[in-house]
Amino acid sequence: MSDPRIIDIALDEQTIIWRNADIEQERRIAIFDLLEGNRFEPAREYPDGYAGPYKLALRVEEGRLALDIRSESGDPLETIVLGLNRFRRPIRDYFAICDSYFQAIRQASPQHIETIDMARRGVHNDAAELLKERLEGKIAVDFDTARRLFTLICVLHIRG
After folding, report:
1. Which of 55, 84, 109, 120 could be cross-linked to 70 through a Cys-Cys bond (beta carbons 3.0 to 4.6 Å apart)?
2. What are the domain boundaries of the chain?
3. Could you tell me whether strands 76-83 and 139-141 are parallel, antiparallel, or unpaired per DSSP bridges?
C-alpha cells in the first residue's frame, strides 16, 4: 500500500550554528505544516515495494543538501544529494526579505508589512518551484511541500 508522505523530519543540528527566535518560529511552523499535509514520493523502488510513509533528515554537507530517506521503522532507504549552487541566491534573498519583514512587523505600517510579505512570498514561491525542478526524477513533491522544505533548507544555512 502506498502512503507517499513524510511522517517525521529532522534537521542536522550540527549544521545549524545560530538562529534567533523569529527563525526558530519559522522552523517550527514549517515542520508542523509539513507534517500536517505533504506529498513526498521518491521515484526509486525500494525493497519489498515499500512506498511510504517516510522519515526524512536534512543536512548540508560539503555545499550539498543531503536528504536521508528512511522507512517508517527507521530503516535507511536512500540518500539524495542536491547541489546547492542554484539555491544560493534564493536563500540569500529569502534571508534579506525575512529580515526586513521581521523588522517591519515590529514598527512599520500595515501597508508596508503587506508589501514586504508579498515580496517574501514571491521569493519563497520561486524557490519552491526551483526545488521541485531540482527534485524532478528523484522525488515528487507538491508545491506546499516544496515551500516548507525550502524554509528548512534556509534554516540549515544560518551562520550567525
Report:
1. 55
2. 6-156
3. unpaired
